[in-house]
Amino acid sequence: MVMQSWEMVCDADYEFPLQIDLQDVEVHVRGDVGYVTCLELVRTKGSSSWGKQVATNVFEKVDGKWFMCIHHASHFDE
């Protein structure tokens, strides 16, 4: 199931550029680790509808710079 979902993402015929709007952004930091949660509204070029997903991005601070080490998003239905 995981491989199939990645194949769908990689094989999708997106029309770029993507427009991504963020809502409900929350930032949490403890030492050299932080994470951001948000609702991502995504729309492709020429589309009138938005896709919604809940996202979590985890960051690690290395030598004074922040690097994303994990990204997770799940489809969101209201």
Automatic annotation (TrEMBL):
Transmembrane segments: none annotated. InterPro entries: NTF2-like_dom_sf (IPR032710), SnoaL-like (IPR037401). Residues 2-75 form the SnoaL-like domain. Pfam families: SnoaL_3. This is SnoaL-like domain-containing protein. It comes from Arundo donax.
